[in-house]
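FAQ
Q: What does a multi-component entry look like?
A: The components come first, one per line:
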Amino acid sequence: MYRKFDPVEGKNAEIIEAVMNCEEVKNIDEGLQFKVRLCVEEVEENILSYSGTTWVSIQAEEDGNSLVICFKDGGTPFDPLAKDDPDITSNLDDREVGGLGIFLCKQMMDSIEYRHENGSNILTMKLRIA
Amino acid sequence: MEVSINKTEDKTLVKVNGRIDTTTAESFNEAIAPLMAPEAGAIEIDCSELDYTSSQGLRIFLMLQKAVSANKGSLVLTNMQAPVKEVFDITGFSSIIKII
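Then the predicted structure of the entire assembly, as tokens:
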């Protein structure tokens, strides 16, 4: 599945449903679908909030035993994975929500990588499905 | 996403159904805003039909827990589905919000 959303503003829900309804995703185990939905939401929310891009493309494909989801956008170069992980042991008063989304993706996916190439941010996530 | 709130004599029973995500987080926040009031007392949220939450939902649960603690009330989440519980576990939220 490949889809490009241009313009992308206000398309959060549409992007998630496009991924969830594609052939590569809709037949996998429900627990894995939950992870895909969560990680797609967190990544695209991050892109739409911070990158200032006007477009996003998303590709989902099977690669051997894995599902590979690749996001591309034309916004400001930004590596969301470079940020320190949130302190998940701090007490209630000190607890912050910032950074939890990308942290969840790092924990739930088998791999997640960022690169900047030809003016685009490219984030690739892999999840073992078989 | 739907929220129902029922006040009984000794606690407030809340039921949340569906998904808390980018699209629905604001409605969820508005629906539970009254629970952040000082007089809210004991709150129990039935999560048996909460199918999904992203960090957008976690943010709201955290704000609620902070308000409840400041108000010396209580908050408990019940019957959470396994994938949702995993989100709370991975982020360490299970150690700051009571889940039974």
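Q: Is there any commentary attached?
A: Sometimes. For this entry: The longest strand of chain B covers residues 12-20.
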